[in-house]
Fold these 3 entries.
Entry 1:
Amino acid sequence: MKDDFPLTPELLIQAYAAGVFPMSESQTDPDVFWVDPKRRGVFPLDRFHISRSLARRIRREEFSVTADRDFGGVLAGCADREETWISGTIARLYLDLYHRGLAHSIEVRQGDTLVGGVYGVALGGAFFGESMFSRRTDASKVALAYLVSRLRAGGFVLFDTQFLTAHLASLGAVEISRAEYRTRLAEALLVRADFHRQGPSPSPQEVMQPRGQTS
């Protein structure tokens, strides 16, 4: 369904709280449509799967990982592909939410080069994962591992991935019904979580430590 109203940061926040999110057909498409999947992908925060190879990569600290240091760079990296739903309009809105403290990013660097990352929106105890990118093997997986660790530490109870892909399923994501998602979302919005409670950057041991918090 095409958007008939001017898309503002306030409207975007209301949409997330109602369980819908925006997309565009392409980077240059001026139109936006709202998406409300019948089946929703979520990450149970206590069951994120770290393979042996990914664990070795994290322990070796082949990448440096930060949070909210280069939101614009991560956003641009996610949109830098032949087909993208991140239009210029949507990108500007997420930048606005970032400056309001409602959108966050995880940056993965190799040396001084940004090689991967993930970004999303946080409301209450819900984190809505929007997009990720990778320019080195496992860079996006490392970003997700650090993000899950941060969400656990910050008291988040819902990690929404929007859709379930084979890649996300291999890392522990599952699919739930729209009705169950709405129930979990309503509960999560009442939670006071803090994306930065973990501090600037957790250690590899913290990232790989399982915790008993669920989405």
Entry 2:
Amino acid sequence: MPSEDALAGKVALITGASRGIGFAIARRLGRMGARVAICGRDQARLDQSASSLRDEGIETLAVQADVASGDQISALVQKTHQKFGPIDILVNNAGIGLFGPFHEFGENDWNRVMDTNLKSVFLACRAVAPEMIRRQTGHIINISSLAGKSAFASGAIYCASKWGVLGLTGCMAEDLRGYGIRVSAICPGSVATDFAGHGGKDASKLLQPDDVAHAVAALVTQAPGSFISEVHIRPTRKP
């Protein structure tokens, strides 16, 4: 694995990082020397997570933000830049899930999932891309899901959002690779968090948040001559 100072001097922004996968990613990148900016909607939870990271000696900026708002994403990026400098690593992790027969959901349900899971990725990437292009460097990692590769009953809205993330990621990678910017997607299976949708699976066999953080660490420390466009993560034993 990369050394503890592999990301010394780097700045990482992780959305949806007040808990679960996002927090694990922030902690892993921070332990590797990065200064991390995290965002979430729950101020109390966000403050608690930031305090935990700082207790480990990780330079941390915590910003309450709704990732579905272009103005709040712009403010988040600006605050990160003012505090730490240009963003080297963006991890779009924020996400929600609604599960059930598609015809039982309303338009507001559709908009809520798409705004959080897909629109936010577009907004955050759009906010950081100009500076990354100017500097001719950067990593963007979008957390999708194996649900973005496979259809299943009661997963219509969630699957659609994660398929969209994969399509967006692939196109952004082509738009930005000529500038030395690497754009990748990570597709985990079910992860042991409080996220809905585990469907009664054996929790002891689920992926752990650190499994996803491990993949992020590998991507951002890859040699500069190549990039991995998509990573699938599955538990060793089926839950």
Entry 3:
Amino acid sequence: MTSATHTNHLHESAPASPHSLGNRVMRVIWGLVQGSLFRLSPRPMHRWRVLLLKLFGADVQMSSRVYPKASIWAPWNLKMGDRATIADDVDCYCVDKIILGDRVVVSQYSYLCGATHDFELRHRPLVPRPIFIGEGTWIAADVFVAPGVTIGEESVIGARSSVFGDLPAWKICTGSPAKPVRDREIREAESLPEAGA
């Protein structure tokens, strides 16, 4: 590549934002709300944070729990089922839909990434892709979930795993990339021994 050609490539204008002006304005307003009314609310005030998310278009059940230090990029793309939980320090990058089924738990420091970039094009345009996590699944601490992934119901994704492809239901999955290592089995709670036994 000649110096002139290289210079021309450097001066090519970047593509317009894929997000509408309305989307960008709403994200600015949400950022102000999230940094104040949401982030500074006491931890037990789950219903208050759910109401704030609903105000910005989230489809979230009142029984859901979103902790104050969680980061939600665009609430209008978030859907949470009954008693679903997003812990502190989770980054929910919902450029596209992120759907958490009933009783899903996303533990601290996990990253749900709802978009990627097309690196085969010069300006690497944003490519939104939805994430679906089936009911009863537990995403343990510091897990990365890639764009476009579906995780089946009642699975467990082990801490610090990276999920780059779909994972089946009722499996314990670990590693990078995460793979099923065994079936998930639910046992009944064991009764505690009698005092003095």
